[in-house]
Design goal:
By secondary structure, this protein is an alpha/beta fold. It is built from 9 helices and 8 strands. The chain has helices at residues 5-12, 34-42, 70-82, 84-87, 94-101, 118-127, 141-149, 163-172, 204-215; strands at 21-24, 46-48, 59-61, 106-112, 134-137, 156-160, 177-181, 198-201. The strands form 2 sheets. It has a 6-stranded parallel beta sheet, with helices on both faces. Residues 25, 27-29, 160-162 line the site of magnesium ion. Magnesium ion is lined by residues 25, 27-29, 160-162.
Length: 217
């Protein structure tokens, strides 16, 4: 079971599918996040410095270069996700690539985002050509994947930009096929070396055939 009771409830609402399972993160995998977020910051006199792979400490006031505290960064993210339909665009090739995989696999989108933003994200993903079930979670992704897979041994693949999400899934579903995809490539240089067993894909053109092969589609 997901450690997040609301995520567990959302999973329980899904039909029990026995096809191969493909679980997709949203930000940086299906939707652009960093590029629109940087535009959002700029509109408020702020800038992201890209000195490390984290937001807090790297968002500064343009005039003073003073970094924002954690609470202010959380407020900014909340504002961004509330207004995501005005800012976020689809990742290149994502909609077509996922549609190509969807015929023979169960596709589920799993976003680490406060549950209160689920309805807005749902509307935005529908508008951009991602009609698959959307789950929100405020806890680790691994246990949610295990619950999604269910009692069967069906093949599972998971795509995310953030290493600790991939590791969480590896720890919970040992035979999951793991893919690291990051739409904003400039961030990749800030990532630590990818843990063992995680396949790096530079874009959807590269990711789609690897996922299809992993799931036996
Ligand atoms: Mg992400």
């Amino acid at each position: 079971m997901s450690e997040d009771p609301e995520t567990a409830r959302q999973i329980a609402e899904l039909a029990r599918d026995t096809r191969p399972l493909l679980v997709l993160d949203v930000d940086e995998v299906l939707l652009e996040f960093m590029v629109p977020f940087m535009r959002f910051l700029d509109a408020q006199g702020l800038v992201f410095l890209a000195k490390s792979f984290r937001l807090t400490g790297n968002i500064v006031e343009q005039k003073t270069q003073i970094p924002l505290e954690q609470a202010a960064v959380s407020d900014l993210l909340d504002g961004f996700f509330h207004a995501q339909r005005e800012w976020q665009t689809p990742a290149m090739g994502a909609a077509d690539a996922v549609a190509g995989l969807a015929g023979n696999a169960e596709i589920v989108m799993l976003t680490a985002m406060p549950h209160r933003h689920r309805d807005i994200r749902r509307m935005h993903l529908d508008a951009l050509g991602f009609p698959y079930p959307l789950l929100t979670t405020e806890a680790a992704k691994g246990p949610a994947l295990r619950q999604l897979r269910g009692e069967t041994r069906r093949p599972v693949a998971f795509v995310d930009d953030i290493p600790h999400n991939l590791v969480s899934v590896r720890d919970a579903v040992a035979d999951a096929h793991l893919f690291n995809l990051m739409s904003y490539r400039e961030m990749r240089r800030l990532l630590p070396p990818m843990p063992e067993g995680i396949v790096i894909a530079n874009d959807w053109a590269e990711a789609a055939p690897k996922i299809a092969a992993a799931l036996g589609l």
